[in-house]
Amino acid sequence: MIATHPLSLYLHIPFCGTRCTYCAFNTYTTMDALIPQYVQALSHELRLVGSRTTAPVHTIYFGGGTPSLLSASQVQQVLRACYDSFDVLPYSEITLEVNPGSIDERYFAALRETGVNRLSVGMQSVHEAELRLFGRDHDAAAVPITVRRARAAGFNNLSLDLIYGIPNQTLNMWQSSVEAALEIGADHLSMYALQLEDGTPLTKNVQQGWISKPDDDLAADMYDLADELANSAGLAQYEISNWARQGRECVHNLQYWRNLPYLGFGAGAHGYAAGIRYEVVRQIPRYLQLASSQMVPMTYPLTASIERHEAIDVQTQMAEHLMTGLRLVREGINIRAFAERFGVDIDVIYGDLLRKFEGYGLLVRDDTTIKLTKSARLISNLIFVELFGEKTA
Predict the structure, then answer these.
(1) d(Cα 267, Cα 264) in Å, to the nearest integer?
(2) pLDDT digits (tens, 9 = 90+) for 127-181
(3) How far apart are CA 36 and CA 334, in angstroms?
(4) Average of pLDDT values for 288-295?
(5) What angle do CA 165, 168, 174 make, to 5 degrees?
(6) Disulfide: which of 45, 66, 279, 393 matches 291 by Cβ 3.0-4.6 Å?
(7) Can you give the C-alpha Rg of the chain in angstroms?
(8) Separation between Cα atoms, residue 1 and residue 52, nearest integer Å
(9) Under 8 Å between Cβ of 91 and 137
(10) What angle do the packed helices 35-50 and 284-293 form, to 10 degrees?
(11) Left, alpha or beta for 184 (phi > 0: left; psi -120 to 50: alpha)?
């Protein structure tokens, strides 16, 4: 049996009603009939892996895809497998992603009964033209309706996602989206610059000149404006792309940024535990075949449905610890904790590079922590490339 830091569980639900034009995640729009089999396979795999660790679990995250395509009873089935197989701690954060407009009051009430206590709502924009550009299956009016229904069912931890740096988006348009999200009463905001991922319809349209390329300088202004608006409304920035009311930070995502272990389940999920990083097979039929039939014990955390895995050496772990930890704009890197975890002083490994970026005004440090300066947050990826090489950025 293996005991480690408290674990986080990521459960990938790859089903969607429609596919957004910017989406590069592992999702499918024509396989909803397989959801019952998928839930059964996911539950089986949870039980298999959970039987091989004593580490407690403190967060569970249903991501996608569109997890709200699962019925409340199917969510309950998966959570029952989690509780039966893992030591899930009391008051654990349990998040489920939902699409606006797709859920009525009865579903929210039933979902709350399953133990889900946090919702992440894919708002993205308040402008109909931008929602159409993204291929979203909801209109702007659906977002406040969804939030009201969730509040009525007892959800008091709600996050909204927004995207900026959209082609043809003006600063005023972005401001109205952020203000709308704040007016709705979000407890948490995730605000991301649009990423043009290879192979997506939106990227192809930009490459072919049918849609204008996003303006990077304007996106930087949008980022600064978002920070100003969120802070004025009582949401403090705690990570490069995330703002929250006090006590409403996403504990699950903090697990990633603190470079702590998490287990990934479901087609295309990723995990990192016991020094091993892995990826589950992406195709749903193949996942169903492998996850449902596996009975032979394997080395934790591996299962028969894992397509790729690699052992992460200490040097890479240290680099990734800095890369993710520097994203935490308030917390940063704890110098003493780094030495305790890796058995070496941080300056022995990275002293010259850290001093270089301090000299540029991009890093600030005191006796206990190292953090990005505010001016460095917009160019953090460039810093990570130079610090650790392109592979880890």
Answers:
(1) 9
(2) 999 989 888 888 999 999 999 999 999 999 999 999 999 999 999 999 999 999 9
(3) 45
(4) 82
(5) 50
(6) 45
(7) 21
(8) 6
(9) no
(10) 40
(11) alpha
| Three-state DSSP state, 317 | helix
Angle at which helix 346-359 crosses helix 380-388, to 10 degrees, equals 140
10 and 273 Cβ atoms separated by less than 8 Å? no
Interval 356-371: pLDDT, tens? 889 988 999 999 999 9
β-pair partners for 162: 124, 191
Rounded to a whole number of angstroms, the distance between the first and last alpha carbons of the chain is 34
Report which DSSP code applies to 53: B
Lookup result for tokens 């979000």: 186
CA atoms of 240 and 218, how far apart (whole Å):
17
Whether the model clears a pTM of 0.85, i.e. scores above it, the answer is: yes
> Quick check: 42 and 78 in contact, CB under 8 A?
yes
The domains found in the chain, sorted by start residue, are 7-256 (3.20.20.70), 314-392 (1.10.10.920)
As a residue count, the chain comes to: 393
> Which tokens is 323 given?
């890369």
For residue 250, which of 239, 260, 259 has the smallest C-alpha distance?
239
The kind and range of the H/E element at 382 are helix 380-388
Place of tokens 């795999």: 45
- C-alpha–C-alpha distance, residues 26 and 133, integer Å: 20
| Inter-residue contact 122 to 147 (CB < 8 Å) | no
Positive or negative torsion for Cα 29, 63, 104, 127:
negative
